[in-house]
Amino acid sequence: MxxxxxxxxxxxxxxxxxxxxxPAPRPEWTALARGVDYRTxxxxxxxxxxxxxxxxxxxTAAARLALGLASQDKxxxxxxxxxxxxxxxxxxxxxxxxxxxxxxxxxxxVNGDHVNxxxxxxxxxxxxxxxxxxxxxxxxxxxxxxxxxxAAPYRSVVQNLRLIKAPGQSVWKTTGRAWxxxxxxxxxxxxxxxxxxxxxxxxxxWTKLVLALPLHVTxxxxxxxxxxxxxxxxxxxxxxxxxxxxxxxxxxxxxxPAQWPIPNVLAVLPPR
Length: 272
What we know:
This protein has helices at residues 2-9, 70-73, 80-87, 203-212; strands at residues 30-33, 36-42, 52-58, 64-69, 91-94, 109-111, 114-117, 125-131, 139-143, 154-160, 162-165, 169-170, 178-187, 192-202, 217-225, 230-233, 240-243, 264-269. The protein is mostly beta strands. The protein has an eight-stranded antiparallel sheet with strand order 1-2-3-14-13-15-11-12, with helices on one face. The chain has a five-stranded antiparallel sheet with strand order 4-18-5-16-17.
């Protein structure tokens, strides 16, 4: 645990969710739980102010994915730090952007028998897990170009904007807008990845930088940007609670000090 303590003590955000100088990225993975590892990467080596990418890598054959939904537990929006305690999670990230009602996901979102947002939209990525078919992968990040049948065996599905199409093709179109980013990805070994960067990037740049890293990312979807982008490492010692800040046209600065409450989160739980 000593390596983890040293790593997290110098973290980008304090346990209260505020910002502090970014840590020096570490060249190794640190275990948070069985099947859950964490490390950081420099997004632009040699740049004057390089961004730091925080990565949680999840072996879904060992650790469990879960959704936390305010529409399901009726307890309102919470920061990912608060969701950590409520879910007993190892790590928590945004599940997706939400609509003006403050609760409903922008794309389809179902969790077992609970329906947060029934309708599919034209977004091209969906994370599916909790399969009723023992032969199916425990979790998959799906490209929806060919339809939605691949999601049918899974009890939990969340649909979001696609960033990277399998097998590793950046598909985001240049918009001139940049933001802090929270994303969910899959690598070529089938691991699910939680990705977070506080530094504001235009997404065509961000996806190219991520694909250049030795993460072997094959697909990725956007789950939130700007001040609401969040990632918490709940069981680390000390815990790490990261907050986004920059968003073109909304909060074009790096001054946001703390996580914002959000209604829907994706968590990784300890193995049973």
